[in-house]
Amino acid sequence: MKKVELKINGMHCASCEVLIERNFKKIRGIEKVNVNHATGKATIYFSQTPQYKDLEAAVKEGGYSISLPNPRYSGSNMPRTTVKKNTGKDFIGIGATFLIIVAVYLVLKQFDFLPDNFSISSNMSYGFVFMIGLVAAISSCIAVTGGLLLAVAGKYNELNPNLNGYQKFKPHIYFNIGRIISYTLLGGAVGALGSVLTISTKATGFLTIFVSLIMVILGFQLLNLFPWLRRFQPKMPKFLAHRIHDASSSGNKGAPFFLGASTFFLPCGFTQALQLYILTTGNFTVGALTMLAFSLGTLPALISLGAISSFVKGAFQKHFLRFAGVFVVLLGLFNVNNGLALTGSSIDLAQIFRQNNNTIQTDTSQKAGIIGGKQIVSMKISGLSYIPSNFTVVQGIPVEWHVDGTEAQGCARVIVSSQLGIAEYLPAQGEKVISFTPEQTGSVAFSCPMGMTTRGSAFEVVPNIEGIVPATDSGTSFDLNSEQQILNGPFQKVSLEMSRERGVYPNSFKIKKNIPVQLTIDAKVPLGGCMSVMVIPEYAVTLPMKLGENKTVFTPTKAGTIYLTCSMGSKMAQFVVE
């Protein structure tokens, strides 16, 4: 048995290995094929020398091309071709695409058409995920998933030659229904798995950075840059992918549905990034809706596969892949910035895109004004940005912190400072006034519970060298005494636990109106991320979570259903008020 080693150009992810191996094995005389996405090479073992045109035709339909890096093997009748490399014209095109996308981004940001965190992150919209699906379907998913769809549809129609046009289209419908249902349910399962793992905020940050680097590697592959990075991309076991493709030759009428469902385990780079992202959310609903939006984004290309396959070739394919590559690299870099925030790093990669934005503050700290022995500071939250984000206050003088959170998004609706013992939910309308007295000099940091708001936000506490006389009331004692009176009085007791084994249990309660409720949450495991602070938004109640029992008190004043949520707004339990 002889062998030849070919260079494969155009592979975007590890799933391409399986597609190319199967196409080569259809050629007469080829006994065994091993394709390695990391090296970009295919090793072919054959008993009868294959024709070069047959090998080329086998991969051309999927958008790949072949070349022969080393023609010295017995019986070779293939011409030697050069390995595809970027030319100077290609690099100019990549640079121009980069500048165009950045310019469009800055213009859209100027008119507030884009979210503050343009990345795969906890505050991205499902519309944004849908857009990622649109790009993924045409750039990298079409070869893998589309090839499987065409194979199963072809087999179905071969076994049923007398079908009309609609009946021939049925496999496409069943395939995509199976794909959407699978992505939704398995996406939710992966999200739920994240809650079982109880990933801390810092661990979530490192996992986010890992997801981002996968996306950057995918972008470089689409641009044909740094091919050696392919070896760092994770992939599913190859035998599993082959089993799924083997099923495409089944004549079973249910095969299209189950094969569509199985594509969750044949992920392209985009899918891998989203799968890892939803793991960090630790939430079934977020995981399910994210993957649902992504699968719906891929639907137009897969439904109109014939037209898309003929359209995305030649010059259009080249320019679209270039756009997709630059877009994915930039998206990955924004996402790295998000991960750095979660790890607590002070590095801010996105600052270069915000340096001319007047709504973002410089390092200048705003000095608090003194009125009646109190320090008054005001801050507005826009998306995930604090405006301003730094204040100078005097030691020992009460502070009234006026926070306008009407435009806050995601976890920014909750503001925390472990040094001050503050965890406050911001109302959708009006200002929240937070009172405290800084007792020691130094820096006092604050952020949202997931650390995704403006980096380096803090109060700088300086000595009272001017002899300012503090007001006699601090504004905090009334709230504390009121809560203590409620704790000592009659109330309804409600208890739940959060554990790996039972999740949030129980998660539904009936309570009486106008009677104080004492809520006890027993955290059996350390809770991080958005679970580090629980919220009852209806009554602006926040409860920072520590290991063991955590208690708070609230009074339901109207009938209906209210919810206990994490700081991101995901519902954890409900209270039916009667």
TrEMBL record:
Lineage top rank: taxon: Bacteria
InterPro entries given in the database record: Cupredoxin, HMA_dom, HMA_dom_sf, UreH-like_TM_dom
Keywords: Membrane, Transmembrane, Transmembrane helix
HMA domain ranges (all copies): 2-67
Pfam family, one: HMA
GO molecular function: metal ion binding
Residues spanning the membrane: 91-108, 128-152, 173-199, 205-229, 257-278, 284-308, 320-336
Keyword Membrane: yes
PANTHER family in UniProt: HEAVY METAL TRANSPORTER, HEAVY METAL TRANSPORTER-RELATED
UniProt-recorded name of the protein: HMA domain-containing protein
Taxonomy of the source species: Bacteria, Candidatus Yanofskyibacteriota
